[in-house]
Structures are given as structure tokens and as C-alpha cells.
Amino acid sequence: MTLPRRLRAAGAACLSALFLIACGDGGEPQPESSGKPRVALIMKSLANEFFINMAAGARAHQAEHADRYELIVNGIKNESDLAQQVALVEQMMASQVDVIVIAPADSQGLLPVARRAVEQGIVVVNIDNRFDEKALATMDLRIPFVGPDNREGAYRVGLALAETLEPGDEVAIIGGIPSAFNARQRAAGFRDAMAEAGIAVVTEQAADWEQAKAATVAAAILNENPALDALLCANDSMALGAVAAVRQAGRRGGVSVVGFDNISAARGLIAGGDMFATAEQYGHQLAVFGIEYALQVLEEGTDPADRKTPVDVITAAQL
């Protein structure tokens, strides 16, 4: 792997070296580089509490290690804005960052620009949503993934739910963006758990990670399946929408809801009995895990490899 240039021209203009949150609209003029490695964190929707927490964790980590690296924090306006995320990567390439840590909006659509970044000598580390492994192989591209096993996490949440159900009970899955690897893996994990428990998955529909869309999808599912026992949602934002639909349908207490991410709103619903469980993937540290590994690759010339991070099931008993 070609390592990036560590020293930049003293007069080169750059984007933020410290705590800029950009949404693809550009930024204010920034100071010259200090010569320390410059790390760009590129996330998905900054409207999602999960990514707000991720950004906060990264900023706190940089503040504690200000002598080691500089940080630029970027995010897009919604989960599916692929074009904006591509533009952010291109901006970071133009500003000659040393590292890009990215939670891609799409598992394949970001790969061409990610490859250009690697070819430029930037260390690229993938977090949250794994790049498509077959596409990586086809492109002869090695980008390490640092994050949890989404299938395992969803499987464990599903098993916890299954302990409250009976064989033959009916559930539905509300998934994320179908092209996203983590969406597919979480849905697969839910299916694994339901099959093992003998519980029927009557339908599986996408709500693209969005709360409002999930509320609409869940309402239709509830209307079409009067015997439904649970809604398994691939993230907590969609679980919030599902809870709203369950309440609107007058089926609170009769239809369980699970999610994935352990955002504060979900914890509140679990404590109040409106949600049964979620998966904690330590989102506030997820970017930190990626940044630390990327800096190791940068400093030591480490051959990049995937790294698995923890995931745990959260129910009322764990609150």
C-alpha cells in the first residue's frame, strides 16, 4: 500500500483541521496544516442521533490526542445522499488529508471515489456500513473494515425477542437501504434468529433507515397482519417510527419492537416498555476505533486488515 505524503506545502490552503462539521456546502477558510496527520471522518446523516454521537466521540478523542492528529468531521444531510458523500470525499482528497475514515451511504457506490483516494496515497478505513467485499475484490482494492458483526448483533437481538414469543408467532422485518451491506446483514441476522425459534417472518420491507418512512411502512404492515406479534427494525430511528405506528394502531403491549444502535430515544422507549430491545454497537466509539487503526496503519505501515468491534444486546434489564 502506498503511504500518504506526511508533509504538505506550508502555504497550501486546507479545509478544517479542527472540528469542522460540513454538509457538502463548503467551509470557511482554514489555517495552514501543522504537519500532524490530518484525519477526515465522513459519516452519513447528521440528523441521526447515532452519527451525532459518533462525531462527538471522535471530537473528544482528538481533543485528548491533539498532539497526535488533526480532525475534520463531515456528514451528509440524509442517509441516502450518495452524491453528496462522493463530493465530500473529493473535497477531502483535494485538501490532501492523510486519512479518511468513512461510514458509506452505499456499499458499492462509494468505491470508485474511495479507490481514487487510496491511489492518491490516503489511508482509507471503512466503518459502520461495510463496503461490498465482492466489489472490492473485483476492483483489486483493499480497504479495511473496522466495526461490529451486524448479522451477529441482529441475531442476538432476535433471539432475545424470540424468548418472549412462541413457535408459530408472526413477526415482520423493517430494513434499511437495500443496497447497504449492514442493512442486509441485520435483516439476515433477524431471519436467522426467527428461523431457529420457529417464528414466521410474514413480510420484510425497506424503510431506508428513516423514521417517518418506517412509521408508514409499519402502519401498513400492522393493518395487513392483525396477528402480528413483533416488528424487527434494522436501526433505532426506524424502530421509533414503528413504535409510533403501534401506538396509533392501538396495539401497544401487543406488538413488540426491537431496533439496532442503542440511541437515547430507544433506551427511553425500552425503559417505558414501548420497545423490547436494541443492539449496542458503541457508536460513540465506532469512529474512534477506525481513527486509531488508521493512524496505526499510517504510522507503522501496517498491512490493513479488518477489525471486529463489540456489539451487545440491550433490554430493560441492562438499563
TrEMBL record:
Keywords recorded for this protein, A-Z: Signal
Subcellular location(s) per record: Cell envelope
UniProt domain Periplasmic binding protein: residue ranges: 39-299
UniProt keyword Zinc present: no
Chief localization: other
GO cellular component: cell envelope
SUPFAM superfamilies: Periplasmic binding protein-like I
Gene3D superfamilies linked to this entry: 3.40.50.2300
InterPro entries associated with the record: Peripla_BP_I, SBP_2_dom
Pfam families: Peripla_BP_4 (PF13407)
GO molecular function: carbohydrate binding
Recorded family membership: Belongs to the bacterial solute-binding protein 2 family.
The protein's name: Ribose ABC transport system, periplasmic ribose-binding protein RbsB
